[in-house]
Write a structure and sequence with these properties.
Layout: H1 3-21, H2 32-60, H3 68-82, H4 85-98
């Protein structure tokens, strides 16, 4: 994998962590609907953290033995399981970065 694609994956990883970090906090109180929303958000955040920690590890290893196809299949599974358009946006973020349509970090 060339250096530009590696940089794009690192940018994606950084973006995911920004999303995780920027999660909204709300007062849940006794509202069951708020409990459901908070639980759903927590499950998605846990799934994202579980999945993307592997990308961080491959980044340290300079993406040696990294299977891009398998990675994106996993992203699609996360999207289906959690019904979140957030995970569906990750491909666009990556593709935009590769195409030069996103701000470079360096």
């Amino acid at each position: 994998m060339d250096a530009e694609r590696q940089e794009a994956y690192r940018h994606l990883l950084y973006t995911v962590f920004l999303h995780l970090r920027a999660g909204r906090t709300e007062t849940i109180g006794w509202n069951p609907l708020a409990w459901r929303r908070a639980t759903s958000r927590l499950r998605l955040n846990q799934a994202l953290a579980d999945y993307f920690h592997n990308l961080a590890l491959f980044s340290v290893w300079r993406f040696e033995n990294f299977d891009e196809h398998k990675f994106w299949q996993g992203i699609e599974r996360l999207g289906r399981r959690h019904g979140s358009e957030l995970v569906e946006r990750y491909r666009r973020i990556f593709d935009d970065y590769v195409a030069g349509r996103a701000a470079r970090t360096s």
